Amino acid sequence: MSGSLHLPGASGDARSGNGSKSMRGGRPQGDALRRFGDAKKRMGDIFVDLEGYVAELVDSFVQLSADYDFVETSQVQEAQHNRNSITVIQTMLKRDHMKVVFFGRTSNGKSTVINAMLHSRVLPAGMGHTTSCFLQVEASPDDETFIMTENTKD
């Protein structure tokens, strides 16, 4: 059994119908998601700057290596590898969706962690409760909360 659970703004109390506040400290629902988005954007900006610096370093290494044989080939290759790694990270940061997988033994707190991240009790948790299925939790652009099961289109 698997399904999707869409939440308004990815946080908030889905059971109470409270459309503007979460269960924790009265913060607005989108606050956690907004902070994540802001942090993701800042990280992206940092990697854009970093890519520029590393690109400049690679160009300097190539020029110095060609003109004076001053820089070892291994250093040029390492700098180029770092530049490629930065490009891969930037590609990952540009994605709209990020996948996080929780796995572990029964009743070890996976659903509790997800509920804490969402600032809402959307998954069964506690003694005697078990999720026992694969779930996909996504933010919803509107204030509608719904559950999709495996063989449905709506």
TrEMBL record:
Keywords from the UniProt entry: Coiled coil, GTP-binding, Hydrolase, Membrane, Nucleotide-binding
Subcellular location(s) per record: Membrane
Dynamin-type G domain boundaries: 94-154
Protein name: Dynamin-type G domain-containing protein
Annotated segments matching region Disordered: 1-33
Keyword Nucleus: no
One of the GO biological process terms: mitochondrion localization
InterPro entries per the UniProt record, alphabetical: Dynamin_N, G_DYNAMIN_dom, Mitofusin_fam, P-loop_NTPase
GO molecular-function terms, A-Z: GTP binding; GTPase activity
Taxonomic lineage of the native organism: Eukaryota, Metazoa, Ecdysozoa, Nematoda, Chromadorea
One cellular-component annotation, GO: mitochondrial outer membrane
Keyword Translocase: no
Matching Pfam families: Dynamin_N
Primary site of residence: membrane
Annotated organism of origin: Plectus sambesii
